[in-house]
Design a protein that fits this description.
With 170 residues, the protein is mainly α. It contains six helices and no strands. The protein has one domain. The two termini are 20 Å apart.
Length: 170
């Protein structure tokens, strides 16, 4: 039986909504960075990676289902995207613990960002030595949660949505 293209398959909807949700979350983080001026620390940047990988994985699930591949393939991509969100939630828990001084952060998290030189000849050397903000200081707290804390919540919600999609489309 030839494969037929259809957006009406359930995995397509779940995968596209999941990809959109992930894009909104990482887009919001980028907005806070580039519009709001909040410079991300090393752990903040690391927490974005599950989204960067998860968006194309979810889209692949939608495409696989839309072109009529066996439903388990689309569900596998959806499951993989959900697992990436679980990884993202774990990273957020780790970063939140670093912010609350429950444990130490990685050595890549600096404690200060030095001032830039005024000498153009030293600029290249300065760029190699300046680090981002410390991972132990939350740049902003909303309702008591930092960006890392909100990442835990959004990652868990997105993961739950993906797992519901996998279960309902079985």
């Amino acid at each position: 039986m030839p494969a037929s293209f259809s957006l009406a398959r359930p995995v397509v909807g779940y995968s596209l909504v999941l990809a959109l949700g992930m894009a909104v979350v990482v887009g919001t983080a980028l907005g806070f960075q580039y519009i709001g001026g909040y410079i991300p620390c090393a752990l903040c940047l690391l927490q974005r990676q599950p989204y960067y990988y998860g968006i194309p994985v979810a889209i692949l699930g939608a495409v696989a289902s839309a072109v009529g591949l066996p439903s388990w393939i689309g569900r596998a991509f959806l499951l993989a995207a959900g697992m990436l969100m679980i990884v993202g939630a774990g990273m957020g828990v780790y970063h939140s613990g670093v912010e609350w001084q429950l444990w130490e952060g990685p050595a890549t998290c600096s404690t200060t960002a030095g001032s830039m030189t005024q000498n153009a000849g030293d600029l290249l050397g300065e760029l190699n030595s300046i680090k981002g903000p410390s991972c132990t200081d939350a740049a902003l707290r909303v309702l008591g949660l930092s960006f890392a804390g909100w990442n835990v919540i959004t990652s868990l919600v997105l993961a739950a949505f993906a797992f519901i999609g996998v279960r309902k489309t079985a």
